[in-house]
Amino acid sequence: MIHNESNIYFYESSNFWNTWLKYISMPFILIPILITFIDIYQGKTSVDNIIGLIVLNLIFIVTIVLILFIMKLELMITDMAIKFRFFPIHIKYKIINFNEILSYNIKKYKAISEYGGWGIRYNFKKGWAYIISGNVGIQIIKTDGKHILFSTNKIEEFFAILDNKIKSKNKEN
After folding, report:
1. If you classify domain 7-173 with CATH, what class do you get?
2. C-beta atoms surrounding 77 within 10 Å
């Protein structure tokens, strides 16, 4: 169900470019360039191969930078639901209506050991995780038993607004 709500009480957009992952990606950008220049300097490649290597390096570098820059997790809380998307994997927002939420809490997690890293992750015991950075997120347990974890840099604000919206919906019912 898609809502046409105009009230957004919480919004956060976070991407990998704003995390320490951009520093970890630097060797993947610099090493191919370095290898190409060493090959050129030592005369191991022909002029034809040099152009191909440079083009391949540029494609590789642009791909890494675009992934780090474009991929983002967007979270919002509206009148009736949590909406989220991991762009560009999700073009449209996914929706968790408040009446689908059984419980929610702030949860400390270990991205690598619990979920296998960052991004959209699935653990058979812990459910889905949408992780950009940090080690604290909001864990949602839905009425169908599914678990969803969201990383957020605004943990207290997200939790307070979610708590307020769900409690006010429960009072209405």
Report:
1. mainly beta
2. 24
